[in-house]
Write a structure and sequence with these properties.
Low-confidence stretches of chain A: none
Structural class of chain B: alpha+beta
Strand content of chain A: under 5%
Structural class of chain A: mainly alpha
Oligomer: heterodimer
Shape of chain A: elongated
Distance between the termini of chain B: 39 Å
Number of helices of chain A: 5
Mean pLDDT of chain B: 66
Strand content of chain B: 15-25%
Order of helices and strands of chain A: HHHHH
Helix content of chain B: 25-40%
Chain lengths: 105, 762
């Protein structure tokens, strides 16, 4: 069992490496960015960040980018429109199938 | 992936404002070494980040893929990819998100490492702790992280480096996105202040205070005019043109009523700060509108879009120089684009293209995208649900797709099949079925959309208003709707997307985002009420804040109101949502500035007098500008321009210049700063000097040259209007800062702070 896990991890890393080196990650990131921007997700998240800053304006010196990321990330994750999520996931899956032609991934 | 995008939009500003003014002492201690490292790292980061985009732009890259072999372009591509591998985290060996480069050694470390992503438990923190190093650079967002401060820190020197690099890479990416297009050298891209400019502003007067926004009096059912005037006055290009005396009534040669004078008066009144909070009454403007267009005269309610068209029409007539083609007037400089209509014969495949000038785009509102979730998408969502547990599913369930501006644009540029018999192919010489497609051939600096809410369905009597909510994004990328993108073969450009993509996806994939096609919202005109009677209000952005203009009443608005977050939410939950937005005004997020150094022959007349009073200058503490030599007007490339001998302050979007041998750099402090009395023009200075050392001396050298030329001719003309173009890399000292002009840049909330920050680096 543990052997298999190690192999899976190896494949995972190899996949990630190819994902990045082929430029697929960059391409998908760009597509995702423009889709999220068009859907208004970016505006909503930015608004949330601004709210966070306003709420903490008293101790503005203490809060960090990390605090804000922690606060906003759950909302940001959950508010990604479902169709965009599905489309990107489909693209990633397509890449994996292409990258692993022989194995039964 | 989503979290990294979040931070892209959120963190830089916050980190910047937080430590603004004080700075990080840890960074200050080794400022020089850090800057040296950054010079290399920033370039490296840009290559890594935009590698694929840059590769596409290589010779012939637009059609072939990076895996195809052969050709010189491919070799250089290969070199870029192979010989400059992206950095990997030294701890985990992956290029995970939020990769940081240590600024004190050659290590890279990422933000992973712990279950909770706290700064103290990441690979980066681990490295910094073990090595005793303090500073690291966020490799994607180019922010400096200081582990001693525990946060990202702002530094003027670093910011200047990043800005300068961004300018250069912006140009490179524009070229990559459109390899065929010829464009002049881009020298600056935003309207931030350079260090020298900020220093001058501080020493020679305060930065101009913010003139309050003013309402516009309703003169009896003229709310349509109020809204249009506000949208025009807050249009950065129009505002810049008018505030820099692009047209002035004292030099106006038009007989009778002149729309240009009235718009000028309106912009001056709304931005001049003289109103003492009272609303502006556009009496003369209304009169000249009526004079220009008899059909809108009278007390009735009018359509805001028609009103805008009428105003622009009259404005063009008042400003256009006869016989000039293409027109160099304000209207065409700011609003004019070109639409392309391509008809492809289904039989022989012959495509006929016709080009149409446009000043705005009228978009039909398509039916709501109810069935947008394809089966495949649903399956994927279900899979995800199973894998990640119910948490994910519960938050996204019930969210329905909302109609967005992009849907309208996709609908507008859809391929439309013409029934046989309508079209007669020139090549087949026979009637044939055909496919027609609209696209944008040339994008204007200011993009205006009208949402056709007033549909006449069938009989004219049965006109109704479409109430559907249309989401306006704050930023819009027009790349997918340009002729270049739509003309590309629909086959995916990369070996990716072997899965059956929908046509919508394919369109988005067909091209990479072109940085020259990015737009930012600056005004919205809302309509409430019925078809025949209703009320217009406007939202507009002024100094990166939103205001709601309801005739004479002006209130602060939140971007949530502007974009209709409440209705957006309702629409996504399937509740009834009402769309009010009727017109949306976008301006290019990055207005390119091009250098033009060759001074033109002396102008024909005396410079037009100032249109702001000395009092106003005193009051607002605005620095008087020095006036530059008129740049040689010569344009080439996509946007054809022409010389205009009369109107000196025409904004020039793309003014190329031959490369000049640089004279030795002049000394900064010795430049003449006296201002000729005739030149007290409110010319906003808003071009960034990319202010690393090399660029700085170049700018100074150019400035010295201009000064010399000026001394020779002693003829002065006003500078170009603010938001568009200025002749050369900004002259260091004498300058004018128009508060209003700084608005284009939406990152600047506090200019004084910025000035402080910048001058610290001197």
């Amino acid at each position: 069992m543990s052997k298999e896990t190690a192999a899976t991890t190896g494949i995972r890393e190899e996949l990630l490496r190819r994902f990045i080196e082929s430029g697929e990650r960059e391409r998908l990131q760009e597509i995702l960015r423009s889709k999220l921007q068009a859907s208004g997700w970016q505006d909503r998240v930015k608004d949330k960040c601004q709210k966070f800053v306003h709420e903490n304006s008293n101790d503005i010196d203490k809060i960090t980018v990390d605090d804000m990321a922690e606060e906003v990330t759950p909302f940001a994750r959950s508010s990604v429109p479902e169709d965009i999520k599905a489309e990107i996931m489909e693209d990633v899956r397509a890449f994996i199938y292409r990258a692993l032609p022989e194995t039964d991934a | 992936m989503s979290s990294s995008v979040t931070l892209a939009s959120a963190s830089p500003e916050k980190a910047g404002t937080r430590s603004c003014g004080r700075g990080c002492q840890h960074l200050a201690q080794q400022h020089k070494a850090v800057l040296e490292r950054l010079k290399v790292l920033i370039a490296y980061a840009h290559v890594c980040r935009h590698r694929q985009s840059l590769l596409l732009g290589r010779r012939g890259g637009s059609s072939s893929t990076s895996t195809e072999a052969g050709g010189e372009g491919d070799r250089s591509r290969k070199r870029l990819v192979d010989e400059m591998p992206g950095p990997l985290c030294f701890s985990c060996g992956t290029a995970g998100d939020r990769l940081h480069a240590c600024l004190q050694c050659d290590q890279y470390a990422c933000w992973r490492g712990a279950r909770q992503r706290r700064a103290s438990a990441t690979h980066l923190a681990q490295h910094l702790r073990e090595s005793g190093h303090v500073l690291a650079l966020d490799f994607v967002r180019l922010q400096v992280f200081c582990s001693a401060c525990g946060d990202y820190v702002h530094d003027a020197g670093v910011a200047a480096l990043v800005t300068a690099a961004r300018t250069r890479w912006h140009a490179a990416l524009c070229d990559a996105a459109e390899p065929e297009a010829k464009r002049p050298r881009i020298v600056a891209t935003t309207c931030e202040l350079s260090a020298v400019a900020a220093k001058y502003a501080r020493e020679h007067g305060a930065m101009g205070g913010c003139a309050p926004v003013r309402g516009v009096v309703n003169l009896g059912a003229t709310c349509y005019l109020s809204a249009v005037v506000q949208a025009l006055a807050h249009n950065p290009v129009v505002r810049g043109w008018m505030l820099s005396d692009g047209h002035h009534r004292r030099t106006c040669t038009n007989a009778g009523v002149c729309m240009a004078c009235e718009i000028d008066a309106a912009v001056q009144a709304l931005h001049g700060g003289s109103g003492e909070g009272r609303a502006f009454a556009p009496v003369r403007l209304l009169r000249s509108l009526w004079a220009a267009r008899g059909d809108v005269a009278g007390a009735g309610q009018q359509d805001a879009h028609e009103c805008l068209v009428a105003v622009l029409d009259a404005l063009h007539l008042a400003m256009a120089a006869p016989g000039e083609s293409p027109c160099g007037c304000l209207v065409h400089t700011a609003f004019a684009g070109v639409l392309q209509s391509a008809v492809t014969c289904a039989r022989c495949g012959n495509t006929t293209r016709s080009l149409d000038p446009m000043l705005d785009i009228s978009l039909d509102i398509p039916p709501p995208p109810a069935a947008r979730l394809a089966d495949a998408a649903l399956n994927a969502a279900l899979d995800a649900k199973q894998r990640r547990g119910p948490a994910l599913a519960s938050v996204t369930r019930g969210s329905r797709p909302v109609l967005t501006l992009h849907d309208c644009l996709a609908h507008y540029t859809r391929a439309e099949s013409l029934p046989p018999g309508v079209y007669r192919c020139a090549r087949c010489a026979a009637p044939a079925a055909a496919v027609k497609q609209l696209s944008v051939r040339e994008l204007p600096p200011v993009l205006t959309f009208q949402l056709k809410r007033f549909a006449s369905a069938g009989a004219a009597a049965h006109s109704t208003k479409i109430d559907s909510f249309v989401r306006l994004p704050l930023h819009v990328d027009m790349t997918p709707y340009t002729a270049a993108a739509l003309a590309k073969p629909t086959a995916p450009t990369t070996p990716a997307s072997s899965a059956e993509p929908t046509s919508r996806m394919r369109r988005a994939d067909a091209t990479r985002a072109n940085p020259a096609c990015q737009y930012t919202l600056f005004a919205v005109i809302d309509h409430t009420g019925m078809l025949d009677t209703g009320h217009y209000t406007a939202y507009a952005r002024h100094r990166s804040r939103w205001y709601r203009f309801d005739d004479a009443a002006v209130t602060r608005a939140d971007v949530r109101d502007v974009l209709g977050f409440a209705d957006d939410q309702a629409a996504r939950q399937g509740r009834p949502a009402k769309g009010r937005a009727y017109m949306a005004f976008y301006v290019k997020s990055v207005l390119d500035y091009h250098d033009a150094v060759v001074p033109a022959p002396p102008p024909t007349g005396p410079p037009p007098p100032s249109s702001v009073t000395e009092d106003w200058i005193e009051e607002t503490g605005v620095v008087k500008p020095v006036v530059l030599g008129e740049p040689k007007v010569e344009r080439r490339g996509r946007k054809k321009g022409s010389t205009n001998a009369v109107r000196k302050s025409k904004p020039k979007m793309e003014t190329p210049v031959p490369p000049l041998p640089l004279p030795p750099a002049a000394e900064d402090g010795e430049l003449p700063v006296d201002v000729p009395p005739s030149a007290t023009l409110p010319v906003p200075q808003n071009i960034v000097e990319p202010s690393d050392d090399e660029e700085d001396s170049e700018g100074e050298a150019l400035w010295a040259r201009i000064e010399k030329d000026k001394a020779a001719t002693d003829d002065l003309v006003p500078m170009l209007s603010p938001d568009v173009a200025r002749p050369l890399p900004p002259p260091p000292p004498p300058m004018f800062i128009n508060p209003a002009a700084l608005m284009v840049n939406n990152h600047h909330d506090d200019d004084d702070e910025e000035a402080d920050a910048f001058s610290d680096s001197d």
